[in-house]
Every structure is written in C-alpha cells, then in structure tokens.
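Re: Re: token formats

Sure, here are both.
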Amino acid sequence: MHYTLKHLHYVEAAERHQSITHAANALTVSPSSIAAAIDYLEGQSGQPLFERTPSRGIRATQFGRTFIDEVRSLLAAQARFDMRVSELNTVLGGTARIACFTPLAPILLPTILKDVRARFKNLKIEIMDVSTNEIPQVIDSGEADFALCYGMLDTSKYSFIPFFRAPPHVALSVDHPLAAGRFVTLDQLEPEPLVVLELEFSKQYLLGLFESRGLKPNVIFSARSTDMIRAMVAAGMGYAIFNIRPMTKQTYAIGDVAELPLAGDHECPSVGVLVRRGVALQPVCDAIINACQLQAMNGAFDGALIQPHVQ
C-alpha cells in the first residue's frame, strides 16, 4: 500500500471533524485536497473509509474506524520521533501562559501539564481559568499566549487547532429511573428538572440542543461551577448535560452520578487550542500544543468522553 503522511493527516482530520469542509478549514487546504486523499486511500485499501451523507457530513465505516485508529498510531509515532529529534537540538525554557475555559481546566490540564513537565523540565507555566467571554480579552491583550477551549469563537480573527470532538452526554443520579437504561433522549428529559451551567456560551449550547428539536427544558437550578452541578445531580436534584466528564471517580456528599449517552445526532463541539491569527508563538508554546495533539491522538482524553447513542 502506497501513501504519504499528508494523505494520513488529511483522512485523520476528516474523521475527527466528521466533515471534509471543516477538516479543510482546520488544515487551511481545499476541500478537494481532503476528498482526493480519502479517495486515494480508499482506492489503495480497496474498501470505503467513510459513509457520505450530504446533510450530515461523513462518518467512518467499521473498516474506516479501524483503519484510522492505525493511522493515529502511526502519526503519533511520527510526532514522537519529531519531538525527540527537536529535543536533541533544543533545551526549551521560558514561560507559557495558558488560558483555559473553567469547566475544562481541572479535567484536562493535569494530564496535559504532567506530560509537558516530564518532557521539558525548564518550563514555567502560568494558568488562568476563564469564561468563554474572557478568552478573546486575555488573548488580544497578551495576558495569555493561547487558550484551551471549545471551538466556538470567531475563526476569522483566531485560529483553532482541534484535539478531539466532545459529544453531549447526560448526568443523572444513580437512583433516577432513567439511569437504568442504555441511553437517554431529549424527549425523555424535557419534563425532568434540569441543572444548567450559568456561563453564557455553555447555557446557549445546552438550551439550543432542545430548541433545535422544538423542546423546552424544565430549568430548575443553575450554578457557576461544574463541581456544584455534579453534586446537585448526585443528590437527586435534577439532571445535567455535559460534553466532558472527570476521568476518575468523584466523591459527593450525597449520592452518586450515572453518565449515559444522549441519543440522536447533536451539535458536537471540538476541544482544542485557540490562538490569535498572525501571532508567532514562542517555541515553548508550540511544544505544549504539539504535546496536546500527540496526547489526543494517543487517546489520553478518551476517558473524558461518552460517545452518543446512534439510533
């Protein structure tokens, strides 16, 4: 089988974004280049990698998922090789200032920074928890070099480097009747008491899931931290919808939480790094972003995700 690393990068991006157009935008190439790479690799393998649906983008076939898992392993090995060669020639130091969307910070940053510090012991890292509204302010002012966030901001002014897609899932008290199922639907949830995260973009996204289906959720409580929301859900005071979850067992004052897939095809934001266009990052920042991409390809964040139930 003959291929280039460019072919592999293109097909990996297409699966990650589940869209040829979105993958092309992320890689700043033409959609025809992505499509040509897919066609080429499908011709080389003799099997389709994707199912194409005009209104819903592309989805990997069973063969395609296995194939792309192997592609990611190969790309990760190549990235490790490049990083090791770079480390032979450069001792990275300096300070990286990272802004992180508050709900993502305690789940993702420890994994990211532990790996980065193990590789580059001379680095100093400053972290600031921010809301989505604050991200442009700290990036534009130079307070932060880049932001770890959802890709929901103006891409004409900022460049977004996606790491993984984060499908919505449902958190319920383990004692809730719906917690006994394999998945939950928005119709089932509509009359149930909902606990929302009182952050502008998060709340808009959550309510938009229901509005897109002509439903109106029963909002009873709101809180400004995901830890508080999870504690309320564990106590049986309502349900919540999240896009990522803690990767280790949580302890609550009362009760416990069950997390189930949300059935259906829903808007699925990407998690990644946001930088201002036209701004050259320090080598230390590039090293951190490259380490994040490598971790994502190696599945370091898979435990934070629950894949949707496809009916």
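Second one below.
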Amino acid sequence: MQPEIFYYNNSFTLESGRTIPGFHLAYTTLGALNASKSNVVWIFHALTANSNPAEWWSGLVGETKLFDPSKHFIVCVNMPGSCYGSIAPLDTDPLTDKTYYHDFPFFTTRDMIRSYEHLRTYLGIDKIWIGIGGSMGGQQLLEWNIENPDLFEFIFPIATNAEHSPWGVAFNASQRMCIENDPTWKEEQVDAGLEGMKIARSIALISYRHYEAYSKSQQGFTTATEGKSIDHKIFKAESYQRYQGEKLAKRFNAFSYYFLSHAMDKHNVGRGRDSVRAALQSIKAKTLVISISSDVLFPTSEQELLAAYIPNAKLAVIDSYYGHDGFLLEFETIESLVKDFINTSYRQPVTGNQ
C-alpha cells in the first residue's frame, strides 16, 4: 500500500532557527472519518518503521483487530527525516537544487508534531480519539499533547520517556560513531555510511532486546556450521547480529538513521518550558502509560515519571522478556490494556495515579 503525500508549501521554521520553504509528509489512512469525526486513531511509528502500521503492528491494526478500519479512521505519518516518503536527506533541497545529504534540516520531535498539525488541518480532524505510539513514536505523542492539550481524548505512550536519557544518548552516539567511521560517510552518495549503519544496527539490537530474549532464541551455534571444528563454528547470536544489519541496509539509509537517532537524543519535553514536570502536567488526555518490564533502553522508571506527573494518569507494566521490542510484540496484552482502560474511563472518572 503506497502512502499519500501531503505538501506544505509555506515557510516553516524549525527549533534550530532554520527556516525551510516547505515540506512534504508521507502518510497512510485506513478506514474513514465518521460523521461526528469521533473515530480518529493516530498511530506514531518508531525509528525505522513506515507510515503503514498494518505492516509493522499487524497484531493491533487491521480488520477485526483493536484498531479496525471498518470502525476507525486510522492515521499514521512517516516522520520527517525518514526514508519512507516524507522530507528526507536524500531529497532535493529546493533552495540549491541539490540533494541534502549531510545538510538536511534537523527536525526535533517537537518540529515533527508541529508539521503534523498542518496535515491534521488538511484532513479535517478536530479531535483525536486515541493517540498511541512506542519509543520515538511515544516521544512525539507526548510532545503533541503538550503543544495541543485539547486535541486528544485518550493517549497510550508505550516504552517511552519525557527526556531522552544519557544511557539512551550513549547508545545512539555509539551507533552514529559507527557510521562516522565508515570511510564512505563523508561522500555525497546514496549508500554512504551503509556499512557503518549495519554495525550501528547491531548495537541497537542489544538495547532493543534483553538477556533472556537472547538466551531463549539465540542459544548455541548456527545449523550451517554443524559438524565443523570448534574454530569454524559460528554462534547464532553473532549470525543474528550480522543478519539484522544486512536486513536494515536493504530498506534504510545511513543518513536517515543518523538524523533520526539524533532527533531522539534531543527529545526533552521541558526544553523552553518551565520544566519537564510542568510540561507533563499540562496534558489533559486520559492517559495510560505502558511499560515493558525488561526494557533496558527505556526502563520502567521513565514511565513511572510520566505517570506521576501527567494528571490522573495510570501506569501498566507488561511482564515480558522481549525487552524494548516488547512494545511491538506484546500486542495481545496491549490490546487488553487499551480496551480495559477505555471501558473503565467511560464507566467512571480516572481518579489518580496507579
């Protein structure tokens, strides 16, 4: 399914102070807006996903699923900087008529949701019933609720945070160092830095998963090296790391990876506002914060902070061995939590943190 493209042809000033003459956003809609415009579900994707959640969140999006196109108007936007249709580093800069490459305008998570506001207006959406997203998607969800507190009725930030941690920055910086040390990175070509990005992805996978996940799925040697001497055997864990790097390189580019990881690092809802706490306290939507127990990249303490400061928010912790990737894989539990929270909220008011 090909995304639609929204063009904004007016000047747009980023947090960095740089003004661009416009931008375009690739977006996917599933279902139709009802007469009362009360069935909008806005889904936010994570770092390397695209605007079609039915592809990467098939357990939650689709016919008869939690988010059903026959009932809901589902919207998902490819974040600026990504390589799936929105304004990106491999696009042409209209001011120079040359490819952006390393000179791509830097979009923060706040810049991203400000661009979505123009798409929302274009789509005729006045109110969003449910907003949901994990990881970097959750960061954008929080930013939008702070910028526009009356827009969302329910929000479900999953495995995310109010400010990216030094731990998270360290992981992302290490990945960018892999790209920077690729001898092709400084070249202005489409595949520049690609070998470095493969290594970066290997580092990322360690932060996305957990000790137990590797123990259960990557134990021992690959079947291809069975019968070989010990010095020629290859561990499944090593093969898996290499495979994941190669897999990403077939669908992504180092420029998008570099800029998006940097945008994640700069995420801080308190920037330019009184504080993180004050920013979160401005959120009005009914909020269920969802955490993954084994998440080492966005640990539960970060979701506890969200639930403590967002007015009347509740916290649910999913017991999972998948680590951070649990927000993509524990869809049955997520569906149950979302349904229960909405049903309970309609029966009685939310009264406090839990």
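Residues 25 and 220 are 44 Å apart (CA to CA). The mean pLDDT is 95.
- S.
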